[in-house]
Amino acid sequence: MTRRITIDAGRPYDVTIGAGARDELLRAVGDDALRIAVIHPPTLTEMLESLVQPLRNAGRQVTSIEVPDSEAAKTADVLATCWARLGEEGFTRSDVVVGLGGGATTDLAGLVAATWLRGVAFVNVPTTVLGMVDAAVGGKTGINTPHGKNLVGAFHEPAAVLCDLDVLGSLPMAELRSGMAEILKCGFIADTGTSTGILDLFEADPAAALDPTSPLLAELIARGIEVKAHAVSGDLRETSGSAGLVPGPHRSGTGIGREAVNYGHTLGHAIEIVRRHQIRHGEAISIGMVFVAELARRSGLIGAELLDRHRSVLTAAGLPVTWDKSSSSDWNDLLAAMRLDKKSRGAQLRFVVLEDLGRPGILAGPDEALLADCFRAVTA
Questions:
Q1: Going from the N-terminus, what domains does the chain have, and what CATH number goes with each?
Q2: DSSP alpha helices (H): ranges in 140-213?
Q3: How far does the chain reach from its first CA to its final CA, in angstroms?
Q4: What is the pTM of this model?
Q5: pLDDT tens figures, 10-39
Q6: CA distance 128 to 224
Q7: pLDDT band at 238, cuts 50/70/90?
Q8: Edge-to-edge strand list for the sheet holding 13-18
Q9: What is the Cα–Cα distance from 235 to 75, expressed in whole angstroms?
């Protein structure tokens, strides 16, 4: 069954979720685009050919732009290479960029589209759970610098997002687990629709939740996208959190400041940076969520039961909940990386925390000794 979720932001667009969703690419690029550039990693060359054949059959000119896999694609040099190809092919404002791949590829493709001629249309075709739930939805585009993750970017909404569930069968289990971290994050900060939340659904059958052919995984992906849709629709440019998030409860998924979707990301992104992206995004975010749960517990915001639920749920998903102290990076490296987090204001660190399940808020300027204690609590 195909589901459509509308992101009601500055320029509303649909996220299509279902088997064979990528077959809608010709419709998604529209009638005016003569030239289509598809940005993709080398691992998806075979999928690329089947994706673009209907475009060629319809008389469109397709340009394939191969970029490095994963975070290696998100550099200024790769961005400049993409610009050069668009220039060589004569791309105009009526033409379209397509991002085919995981979250790193769609982040890059979005920034290419945002900056070429000050903004052309783009369509995301995410091929991982992480890409579907997180990176491909919301209009954030960006690349990394040596100083941090996603420090250079732009808000640029896609024209459409096509989440084809058929592609998930080829994913390694580690990638499925990494994407599940973002879905479970949505369960902690908010939920949608029914009395049975994301966490409840996952806990009832973790094995099915990680089965790429399972209707449960399809439901969880849709639930995660709905949470992101509500957050983005109410706060496209991440401004409502400047003075703190809208107070909860948010189990309906409404009223969430966009900063809430960064739950676990302050330490998580720092881990990715100091580990030079040799750890999957979802694995880093998993540790980051346990860290901020410790912070909320020690700040008197949540009880021990909700902290324990973080560890139990994430462990059931096969995700790490502790930092390996044998790592060459220490707390001071991580603290320095966190100071460049997007939520920071001046010298003040700000963390998305929970006041209860489904009730996110901002904890600004916590004592550094408290942060160090929380880090020790998540260090193995």
A1: 3-170 (3.40.50.1970), 184-192+239-377 (1.20.1090.10)
A2: 173-189, 198-204, 206-209
A3: 43
A4: 0.89
A5: 788 999 999 999 999 999 999 999 999 999
A6: 14
A7: low
A8: 3-7, 13-18, 160-164, 121-126, 96-101, 35-40, 61-66
A9: 27
